[in-house]
Amino acid sequence: MSCPPRQLYRFPIAIVLSSLLLFVMPVSAEQSITEPSQLDQGILAPLFTLLVGLLLILFAPSFTDRTTQRILDNPEDTFFYGIGLGILTIGLFVLLIITVIGVILLPFLIIFMIVATEIGFLATGRVFADNWAVILGIAMGFSTFAGLIPYLGGALGLFLGAFGFGTLYFEYRSSDDSGRSGRNNRSKKQSNVRSPPM
Predict the structure, then answer these.
(1) What CA–CA distance (Å, rounded) separates 160 from 119?
(2) Are 154 and 49 in contact (CB under 8 A)?
(3) Domains of the chain: which residue ranges?
(4) Rounded to an integer, what distance in angstroms lies between the CA atom of residue 31 and that of residue 108?
(5) CB 170 within 8 A of CB 69
(6) b/e sequence 166-191, b meaning 16+ C-beta within 10 Å
(7) Average pLDDT, stretch 58-81?
(8) What pLDDT shows up at residue 53?
(9) In the predicted structure, residue 40 carries a pLDDT above the cut 90
(10) CA distances from 132 to 24, 52, 137, 139, 185 (A)
């Protein structure tokens, strides 16, 4: 998965075509097209995915590669842990809205939810491609479907977002475990150092 970030700009056609392809597919569902609000969501969703996906790929490439690969390697655990964490997050979201402290913490929770959902969409793209530009285009296509089709698209977004929540949980747990092992190793080294004779 080593694709230089600058190659993203060599494939704008792939990104646009992938998004347009899945944008045109649900045209037969007249009910979703006739509602302006739903149509707006279908247009804004891939643009939002493009923006957040580019930020993740360009500024956190190792994190993005690691978390999306974890979903592919262990989809069952990431999904089921993600469902639990997603329910907890939504409950916390509602709680923060009705409390004063939520004014401070709510933006961080929203960012967490956005990153988790985007990781899920990018992991879906990795099922079909190995190039980050194409992966991002496929993720835009799926987000277009999720934003355009009522109910079914929302279910798809929640489904893929669950994988993102789960992999972020495992990412936190692995970083915490590595931090603990590092501290234990340092304490062992210090305990092995003998004090100088008096």
Answers:
(1) 8
(2) no
(3) 11-174
(4) 35
(5) no
(6) bbbbbeeeeeeeeeeeeeeeeeeeee
(7) 96
(8) 96
(9) no
(10) 23, 13, 8, 10, 37
